[in-house]
């Protein structure tokens, strides 16, 4: 059996990392694989070729397309055509993506909420939830000599990684941080916006400060440090090592890799309850922010028929996020308990564990 895998695994963003991790898990199945990269981002991509780009086979039984549904193709020369999608919202209406999902025989997602939604939309199609996987060996291979500038070693460091899109909950995070702490607290918030220009995040920061109102005072304001230089993989791992608690108050249902990485490092994250990430991490190894379903009325729409008000997201409650941050800072007993519970994640999130499941999914019967 041979597989042709197409995906953005050479992109350095989180989507690219998830695609690379999926490819690495597929390789662990020991099934013949050829990979072809997609380049869908405007920022630089990794130039090193993946080893499976050099393999060739006379015929391919399965096509796996990891991309946006708008780019799916229907090709009957394959015995099975699998589409891998990371839908961030549900309840889509008048959306071309749903139509394009008809082009594939089977759909893979990374959230049970999305799986259940698509099962209602496509009752005759096979929908599978493939849990995110990670290269768990990286925890042992972090260069000790590297350090990140601007991090205060004497303070408890909350940190965020990602872009400045409002769907990532940046505004809620900043308001909750100001609500929870003052300069008297030994805390620091590190905002990792790799490759993002200051003019992109400054208005968001200023708007959050404005909404925080009198909570923002130069005498009382807790420390915030912004890192917007690009982070290579080793620097990302160093950030996990040197910081204490990741905060990821995302609105989106699709599971994210950064909080999973943080958890295996023992930096038990604060995440939004009801999302795909909270299906993998529980209150045993993370803090869950109370949330509610809301219309997807957020700016930054990448396509005219996507992220419209017809769709549904999960919005984190600022008061709950504030409580989680204060408990993470103040309660070392709970931190240590969650960290201990995270040790089991190393095995469950490995490429080898994912391969055991994927081998059954790609089997042709």
What report would you give on this structure?
This protein has 12 helices and 14 strands. α4 (170-180) crosses α5 (198-212) and α4 (170-180) packs across α9. The longest helix has 15 residues, at 198-212. A 6-stranded parallel beta sheet has the order 2-1-3-4-5-6, sandwiched between helices. It has a 6-stranded parallel beta sheet with strand order 9-8-7-10-11-12, sandwiched between helices. A two-stranded antiparallel sheet has the order 13-14. The chain is α/β, with parallel strands linked by helices and 365 residues long.
Write a brief caption for the model.
By secondary structure, the protein is of the alpha/beta class. The protein contains 12 helices and 14 strands.
Defining key terms:
12 helices, 6-stranded parallel beta sheet, 365 residues, globular, alpha/beta, 18% strand
Count up the helices. 12
Order of helices and strands: EHEEEHEHEEHEHEHEHEHEEEHHHH
Proportion in β-strands: 15-25%
Total strand count, please?
14
Layout: helices, strands, pairs:
Blueprint: E1 2-7, H1 14-27, E2 32-37, E3 62-66, E4 80-84, H2 96-100, E5 106-109, H3 112-121, E6 126-129, E7 156-161, H4 170-180, E8 187-192, H5 198-212, E9 223-227, H6 233-242, E10 245-248, H7 257-264, E11 270-272, H8 277-280, E12 287-289, E13 291-295, E14 312-316, H9 318-330, H10 332-341, H11 345-348, H12 351-361
Parallel strand pairs: 1-2, 1-3, 3-4, 4-5, 5-6, 7-8, 7-10, 8-9, 10-11, 11-12
Antiparallel strand pairs: 13-14
Helix pairs in contact: 1-12, 4-5, 4-9
């Amino acid at each position: 059996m041979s597989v042709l895998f197409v995906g953005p695994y050479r992109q350095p963003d989180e989507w690219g990392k998830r695609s690379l991790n999926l490819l690495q898990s597929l390789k662990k199945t020991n099934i013949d694989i050829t990979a072809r990269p997609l380049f869908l981002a405007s920022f630089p991509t990794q130039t090193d070729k993946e080893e499976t780009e050099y393999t060739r086979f006379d015929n391919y039984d399965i096509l796996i397309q990891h991309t946006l549904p708008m780019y799916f193709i229907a090709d009957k020369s394959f015995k099975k055509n699998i589409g891998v999608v990371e839908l961030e919202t549900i309840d889509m209406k008048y959306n071309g993506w749903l139509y394009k999902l008809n082009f594939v025989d089977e759909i893979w997602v990374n959230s049970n909420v999305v799986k259940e939604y698509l099962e209602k939309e496509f009752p005759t199609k096979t929908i599978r939830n493939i849990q995110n996987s990670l290269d768990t060996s990286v925890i042992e291979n972090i260069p000790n000599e590297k350090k990140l500038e601007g991090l205060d070693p004497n303070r408890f460091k909350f940190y965020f990684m990602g872009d400045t899109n409002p769907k990532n909950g940046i505004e809620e995070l900043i308001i909750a941080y100001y609500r929870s702490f003052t300069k008297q607290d030994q805390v620091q918030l590190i905002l990792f916006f790799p490759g993002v220009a200051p003019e992109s995040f400054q208005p968001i920061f200023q708007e959050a400060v404005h909404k925080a109102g009198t909570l923002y005072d130069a005498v009382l304001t807790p420390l915030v440090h912004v890192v917007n230089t690009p982070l290579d993989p080793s620097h990302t791992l160093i950030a996990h090592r040197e910081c204490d608690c990741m905060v990821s108050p995302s609105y989106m249902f699709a599971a994210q890799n950064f909080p999973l990485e943080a958890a295996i490092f023992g930096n038990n994250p604060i995440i939004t309850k009801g999302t795909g990430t909270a299906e993998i991490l529980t209150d045993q190894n993370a803090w869950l922010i109370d949330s509610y379903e809301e219309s997807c009325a957020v700016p930054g729409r990448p396509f005219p028929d996507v992220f419209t008000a017809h769709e549904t997201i999960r919005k984190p409650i600022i008061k709950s996020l504030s409580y989680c941050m204060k408990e993470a800072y103040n309660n070392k007993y709970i931190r240590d308990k969650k960290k201990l519970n995270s040790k089991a994640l190393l095995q469950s999130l490995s490429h080898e564990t994912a391969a055991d499941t994927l081998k059954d999914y790609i089997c042709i019967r």
